[in-house]
Amino acid sequence: YLHKKMARFADLPWVGDVRCLGMIAALELIKDKLTKEEFTFTERVGWKIYLRGLEQGLILRPLGNIVYLWLPISTTTAEIDEITERTWRVLADADNISGAS
Predict the structure, then answer these.
(1) Residue 32: DSSP 8-state
(2) φ and ψ of 61, to 5 deg
(3) What's the average model confidence in pLDDT over 62-67?
């Protein structure tokens, strides 16, 4: 169920890849989908997403330009719906990615 809910993130222009394994999902953030240009370390995109996630009541785990969701195995489908919706709100705002802090 988590994998299905995460699939829509691939439509965002700054999500280069969506990966899932069990109850772990990963979103790779990139500057440009066509060129596969990555954000630089100094842009701290993962950290900015982490901070915006906290505002939505989420604890997202940034590792460089990859943001992870680590869900307990006991997470219900209703909770997955809520978590993925909050994560969407964080990532769908281009200002979060392009440099707003």
Answers:
(1) E
(2) -105, 105
(3) 94
